[in-house]
Amino acid sequence: MKIILNGEPRDVAVQTLAALVDDAGFSERKIATAVNGDFVPAPARQDIELSEGDRIEIVSPMQGG
Amino acid sequence: MKIILNGEPRDVAVQTLAALVDDAGFSERKIATAVNGDFVPAPARQDIELSEGDRIEIVSPMQGG
Amino acid sequence: MKIILNGEPRDVAVQTLAALVDDAGFSERKIATAVNGDFVPAPARQDIELSEGDRIEIVSPMQGG
Amino acid sequence: MKIILNGEPRDVAVQTLAALVDDAGFSERKIATAVNGDFVPAPARQDIELSEGDRIEIVSPMQGG
Amino acid sequence: MKTFYGVSLPNPLMLGTAQYPSPAILAEAFRASNASVATVSLRREKGAGHDFWRLIQDLGVRVLPNTAGCHTVKEAVTTAQMAREVFETNWIKLEVIGHTDTLQPDPFALVEAAQILAEDGFEVFPYTTDDLVVAERLVEAGCQVLMPWGAPIGSGLGLSNVYALRTLRAHFPDIPLVIDAGLGLPSQAAAAMEMGYDGILLNTAVAKAGDPPAMARAFALAIEAGALAHGADPMEPRDMAAPSTPVVGKAWLA
Amino acid sequence: MKTFYGVSLPNPLMLGTAQYPSPAILAEAFRASNASVATVSLRREKGAGHDFWRLIQDLGVRVLPNTAGCHTVKEAVTTAQMAREVFETNWIKLEVIGHTDTLQPDPFALVEAAQILAEDGFEVFPYTTDDLVVAERLVEAGCQVLMPWGAPIGSGLGLSNVYALRTLRAHFPDIPLVIDAGLGLPSQAAAAMEMGYDGILLNTAVAKAGDPPAMARAFALAIEAGALAHGADPMEPRDMAAPSTPVVGKAWLA
Amino acid sequence: MKTFYGVSLPNPLMLGTAQYPSPAILAEAFRASNASVATVSLRREKGAGHDFWRLIQDLGVRVLPNTAGCHTVKEAVTTAQMAREVFETNWIKLEVIGHTDTLQPDPFALVEAAQILAEDGFEVFPYTTDDLVVAERLVEAGCQVLMPWGAPIGSGLGLSNVYALRTLRAHFPDIPLVIDAGLGLPSQAAAAMEMGYDGILLNTAVAKAGDPPAMARAFALAIEAGALAHGADPMEPRDMAAPSTPVVGKAWLA
Amino acid sequence: MKTFYGVSLPNPLMLGTAQYPSPAILAEAFRASNASVATVSLRREKGAGHDFWRLIQDLGVRVLPNTAGCHTVKEAVTTAQMAREVFETNWIKLEVIGHTDTLQPDPFALVEAAQILAEDGFEVFPYTTDDLVVAERLVEAGCQVLMPWGAPIGSGLGLSNVYALRTLRAHFPDIPLVIDAGLGLPSQAAAAMEMGYDGILLNTAVAKAGDPPAMARAFALAIEAGALAHGADPMEPRDMAAPSTPVVGKAWLA
Fold first, then answer.
1. Which residues of A touch G86 (CB under 8 A)?
2. pLDDT digits over G161-201, tens only?
3. Torsion (CA) G51, G57, G59, G62 in degrees, nearest 10
């Protein structure tokens, strides 16, 4: 299934957002997620089924002013 | 019937806004009218029936910055 | 002999500036002296003969900005 | 005789400042003169004998702010 | 030269009509300054309206009615509608006051009212702040003129935020920009025009001067001066001095 | 109105004659501005002097010769003497430069030269700083006009020290004060006149503008505006706003 | 002393974490200044997030996540929600950019987003303009802190509109006010604190200085100085001079 | 770091000793600020001199006697000679007042007196204007420190002519420059130090504050801040904004 992860097209096998985070190796990381512009809290990730063309954002702490 | 004309309570016999303007002697004057905060164009004044407690404003040109 | 000490007329019996300083009870004080607008160093005071009308200034430390 | 006219060395035959002004073709011009830094009024030019090394300045109106 | 809703004004000075010592002095101030626009208001008729209107008509200038004192969208819109009928013009100086101490515009109500009036066929002259984003909203709402304040109405403080005013000018090269309110001295009006502003709206600084006609004329001259200077491509300021009189050819008089 | 050594000038603008793109543009700048005084200098005759002098005479204005570029009392005095003979006027704009980077006056040499020249019958227009004590010395030396700088010559920075310029004005109510040098924009000239100054002497800001005649006229208008405003008793600026349009009689449209 | 949503900060300096030459220098800047708050952001995870977070935690300061770069209400709200989860704080520095050139806030979107976030339990630190009416709306929306800009982000221009900033202070005596963005020098921060401001938020001026830790400390000292001065009841400035050294008792030495 | 006649001061703040509510508060102000120099004067002995001197000695700071109130060269020279004997120091703050309203220095008498005193072995700290040429004369006369005023003594107006003060700094890179008089707020002192000045001399702004010790400390901190900033190579201000938070990696949340 084709999705867009952090702005880049990806072909993924996983079904849920949680699985995607695992798959991307971020499960241990300090991150937050959004799907198609909506925030998805960590506990809810496993209930989110990915669909073709979803825009997934996985963000982490960065410098800021 | 009791109305409020330009902020002052008035007891009037007239039925319409047009009649009130006449009655107040403003018919020849350069004025505009509003009833309860809504603009009433000159032509429409005769169709406006006054009711108890109406707030009538009759305004004319004045200094401005 | 009449002199002016710190702006006030004084009638003094002493002959020298040193004596005047003593007489005024300033000998132990932290002061400096001038006669008729000229500085007189401490050691020289005893050699300075006072004359009628001399303007003597005896100054000491004061607040300053 | 060698002089300096307006900053440039000149070898001249004339004796007086007046003659120099003529010689330079300035007699009709709106000019003023100085010799060795001192102003020489027009009438006095004929009385000024030039000497070896004199610094002559002949100036005229120019733009100014 | 830019036009105000298709009208080109012979003189970029817009002058208020309030607070003058007398109607005669008001009229004289307009004559002395050749102001091209007079701002007026609507107030409860007490009999004086007629004569005042005659006076204004005799000035032979364009009339720009205002919504002064309105604090809500509804008040401003109704006032604008009444003004259009009385003054027979689509021009409206839209004021929606957001704060009584500063008499500053309420950006939110201002944009909303501007939208309603523009859709209703008004030609809106919004009295606004120097905020670039608010200005963009007003243009989107249909305003073809912007009137940022220089400082609070009647304060005479001049141009409080030159940086913001420059920014506005840079972002709206084609929209007529008028400094409305806050000026106290002609030099401030000249400075605004030197920055490329297209007009100045004044009242208190003229009406409250000791000699209103003289002050009105002073502002008119300063505005013309500033506009001329803006068009004449001024020199760049620089930190070092540079002689004006030529150095070459200086006599050696040591 | 104050006079300059007994001469009242129809226009408080004094204009320099250097750095213009062409003699024609110089002449046009004078016509456009009605400047009443032209500053000129003396330089080594190379043939151009005659035509330039003809040009200046055709302007029909008063001539104010300067001692530009002089760094010593002697240079300045000799130059002044030559200028008096050539230009047939007792007026002299006395410049004694104290520093090459700022072209600022040397207060010491300036006062000394002013004294010598005043005793010799000159009518001295001293180019000075905004220093009050130096100004007093110049007046004691016989100067009946003072010309403090606004900023370094040719910098276009405007009025660097408004406080000092105000102080000068306050202490010399009866002496004509002219801002000489440093202005870049008409609004700065207007501000000086609003402070009560009696004239403005300019060169670079006009000559180096893209359109010198337009800029000359802009300065002339701004100067007139500032003078008018000064005489018209301006309002006092205040921190709080105050409505210009009357509040009484406002309709209740809630 | 005012609190920020119930938290009293030991030091009124809030420091950004971006643009430093190195993480070590960033850490040193915090140590040197004792800044009490660090602003941070969220960006797409590329692996660096973890180490950066460790670094910030080691600073031992409060974290204030921002919504930098968001141009819409939705972007800002979603970013705030993600930030709350990652940084485990209800604090959010709410930025909704209205214009790319000035990076100024969009007052309309800002108020809307502030309302949504406040209702959702966030403690909003809004990056806003110096507009009084917008400030009132933010307070009505639930903001208990206001952060007006001094000048555009990263410009280093200082306090562009001192008048407006004073007005804000006067109208919100009990709300903590923080100058956010635009400062370039410590003297500007001191001036803001002298006006009674409660804090300063900085980044570029420190990170882009030649010596960021020294500049960070300089700002911290200036902020402390300004706060002390505000509390110490400064003298009123006056136009006339007044001798500090007593005149009485001066010797007569003529 | 520059020395003052070979003496390096631990703290660039020089504090006056006049106008305090009480001697105790004076002492507290010195303790709170760690000022390194105390200015003092000489007045006709009326008995108070001894205790005052004891108080000053207990401060454990360097003493800088002044010639305050002197209007002539002779008065100033005699006062300096008396001061050297009483205070046992070659340091003298040379004031020769040129005008009673502004208390500004008399440049002519100042240079003359400086020359006499320098030749007599004094180490002269001249209270001067911001005039570059006068400053050069003072250096030629033997002054190895310059103390230009910021504004008139006791006015609290701050730095009236930043341009001139920058020029002085640029022309005397190796001479210690101290702002003497006219400051009212710490931010002004910080700004002077940011320009590269080497010290600040104050009295009224501290002594007349509601809380002199707090204000003294505020100035000391601001001075340290300004000096640090000057050494830390500040960013250049710019007209356009620039994001501090990185743009790259921002999530797409539309």
1. 30-32, 59-61
2. 999 999 999 999 999 999 999 999 999 999 999 999 999 99
3. 140
Average pLDDT over residues E77-88: 98
Distance CA E168, CA G121 (A): 37
Cβ–Cβ < 8 Å for G132, G153: no
Contact yes or no for E253 and D57 at CB 8 A: yes
pLDDT at position E1 over 80: no
**E97 contacts E72 by C-beta, under 8 angstroms:** no
**F214/E232 touch (CB, cutoff 8 Å), yes or no:** yes
CA distances from F6 to B63, F14, F146, G82, H35 (A): 47, 16, 15, 80, 56
Query: Please, which pLDDT band fits residue F125 given cuts at 50, 70 and 90?
Result: very high
CB H187 within 8 A of CB G207: no
Residue G135 has a CB neighbour count (10 Å cut-off) of 26
Could you tell me if D6 lies within 8 Å of chain E, comparing CB atoms? yes
> Are the Cβ atoms of E154 and F242 closer than 8 angstroms?
yes
- Mean per-residue pLDDT pooled into runs of 10, chain G (254 residues): 94 97 97 98 87 94 97 98 98 96 94 98 98 98 98 93 96 97 96 98 97 98 98 93 89 87
Chains that touch A (3 or more CB pairs under 8 A): G, H
Check contact B-D (3+ Cβ pairs < 8 Å). no
Residues H121/H97, Cβ–Cβ less than 8 Å: no
* B29, B33, B41 member nearest E49 (Cβ): B29
Query: pLDDT of G9-24, one tens digit each?
Result: 999 999 999 999 999 9
Joined tokens for residue F241: 């706003």
Strand-strand pairing, D2-5 and D8-11:
antiparallel
Report d(CA E18, CA E154) in Å as an integer: 11
Looking at chain H from residue 165 to 184, which residues have their Cβ under 8 Å from any Cβ of chain F?
167, 171
How far is the alpha carbon of F161 from chain H, nearest alpha carbon, in Å? 5
Helix (H, G, I), strand (E, B) or coil at C61: strand
**H or E element that contains A38:** strand A38-40
The whole-number pLDDT of residue F240 equals 83
Q: Which among G135, G99, G125, G182 has a CA at the least distance from the CA of E134? A: G99
Q: What is the residue-wise DSSP string for E13-69?
A: EEEE-SS-S-HHHHHHHHHHHT-SEEEEEEEE-SS-HHHHHHHHHHHTSEEEEB-TT
The chains found to touch F (3+ Cβ pairs under 8 angstroms) are: B, D, E, H
User: In H131-178, which ranges are continuous DSSP H helix?
Assistant: 132-140, 162-171
G251 CA to chain C: closest CA distance, Å? 6
Q: Nearest CA to H15 among H175, H230, H199?
A: H199
d(CA E30, CA B48): 40
Min Cα–Cα distance to chain F from B40, Å: 12
Question: Running DSSP on this structure, what letter comes out for residue H82?
Answer: H
Report the alpha-carbon distance of residue E12 to residue E30 in Å, rounded. Answer: 13
Q: Do C37 and G253 touch (CB under 8 A)?
A: yes
Burial of G71 per CB tally in 10 Å (0-12, 13-18, 19+): middle
Q: Residue G105 in 3-state DSSP?
A: strand
Contact present, E148 and E168 (Cβ < 8 Å): yes
- ipTM score: 0.94
**Is the Cβ pair D61, F19 closer than 8 Å?**
no
Q: What is the pLDDT of residues G77-93, one digit of tens each?
A: 999 999 999 999 999 99
Give H191→chain A minimum CA distance, Å: 25
Is E74 one of the annotated active-site residues of the chain? no
pLDDT at F1 over 80: no
**Is A59 in Cβ contact with H245 (below 8 Å)?**
no
